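Dear Dr. L.,

I hope this message finds you well. Following up on our conversation about the binding site, I have prepared a predicted three-dimensional model of the protein together with zinc ion. For your records, I am including the exact sequence and ligand specification that went into the calculation, followed by the structure tokens. Please feel free to forward this to your student if that is useful.
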Amino acid sequence: MTMIAIMSCQRGGTGAAASTPSSRSIKSDCPTADSAIVTLTYDDNLQSQLANAVPMLNAHNMRGTFFLNDVTANVDAWKDVRAGGHELGSHTTYHPCTAQFDWVEKGNASEDYTLERMAEELDDQISMLKTLGETAPFSFAYPCGTTWIGSEQTSYIPLIQKRFIAARGVTGDIVTRLDDPMNVPAYFLEGPLEAFIGSANAAIADKGWVVFGFHGVGGDYLSVSNEDHNAFLDWLAERQDEVAVLPFRDAARCMLK
Ligand SMILES: [Zn+2]
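The resulting structure of the complex is given below.
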């Protein structure tokens, strides 16, 4: 699955900064409306996430969200991640992206899917998440940020809406009002550290929610270095009065009225 996620990154960073005030309601398990929220998400169940990202998050007592494809080769390791308090979400089993990318596997392109096939795959994913110890409500991340399937480019968002509380897209933006939980903005950055800090500071200034999307951490592809990843967690840990680090689902719940 080496090339699979490249488009997520290429498509990131196009959103304009929002300026509306926070509409977050105050709930006991959510930070106050004065606090920003940062969510750290990791795609494609990569080995470097297990080896590097998970231990770093644990060392900082922070919880991330891991959007998984097929994990049959590594079930026990992902069960451990869930048992450690991290969220496991769905990223589809076969990662459909448009056939216009030459790295997309024949037969598993977005164009090859029907709504029936996607519905079945999503149900299989939910079974897999349950097997790993995850519980409802579940969250989702669109492969390549693509929300359509078939030659007619039919939206599969209704299938997501039926099964998931929130879904992550790939357009970089700070969320101050969660108007569309089915396509939550996210920044895909590989560094440097200042870029992560810049987006987190924008969320702090807006008292908003910022979602980061990672692939490799100190390895694999589209990678952030271990040094930058760890330094960013250090930076967040020093600012707990201003910013709460929450898994994607928990943050979405806090942002939803
Ligand atoms: Zn992906």
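In brief: The chain has one domain: 23-255.

With kind regards,
A. P.
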